[in-house]
Amino acid sequence: MNDFEGKTGKIRREYQAGQLDRAQLSSDPHVLFQQWLQEVVDADVLDATAMTLATVDQNGRPAARIVLLKGLNNQGLQFFTDYSSRKGQEIASNPQVAVLFYWKEVNRQVRITGTLEKLSDLVNESYFDSRPEMSRWAAIASDQSQPVQDRQTLEAAMRNAQNVGDLMKPARWGGYHLYPDSFEFWQGRPNRLHDRFLYILEDDTWRIARLQP
């Protein structure tokens, strides 16, 4: 074991804030998720809507990256990206995905699995038009995930897009709706004896189980 490995093995902390009991659960996991998210937003937790999105390619090789939650209702979650990006291509071949929210300030995480469907053109255009202007130019100029020679080439593509002056949503850009089939709520507790509750959707009914930590 090298010195770095020895140091990382000693990194630990106790999870002192909060607990999760069966009595606190809603029969609908969407309700509990919205409650938890609202609590971290109200607490000004940095990047509260950031979530890790995990996909797999055609060979079953997994990939994960951070995306931002941009819509939420009692049927699931929404986010936006470039459909031609690596994640977009992986979603096209396998729409089964997993997302993870981790809020270290409150010792909580939520794992969600489900199926993605593309949002309508109307929804995509409405959200695209609501974005800051420079973010829209960036989406137009960038072929997400494709190689680029250098930073200067990327900045030149941005200037060229602005010179053309067409601030319309690219056809390759849009959003997805995640329809969940499972939620797992994790609340950190002292001594690693954490609280974990799993919701599984079976025959249109959410089944709840407490999991060992």
Q: Which regions contain 5 or more consecutive residues with pLDDT less than 50?
A: none
Radius of gyration: 20 Å
Number of strands: 9
Q: Output mean pLDDT.
A: 93
Distance between the termini: 28 Å
Structural class: alpha+beta
User: What proportion of the residues form beta strands (DSSP E)?
Assistant: 25-35%
What is the makeup of the main sheet? 9 strands, antiparallel
User: So what's the overall shape?
Assistant: globular
| Helical percentage | 25-40%
Report the total helices.
6
Question: What's the gist of this structure?
Answer:
The protein has 213 residues and is α+β, with helices and mostly antiparallel strands. The chain contains 6 helices and 9 strands, in the order H-H-E-E-E-E-H-E-E-H-H-H-E-E-E.
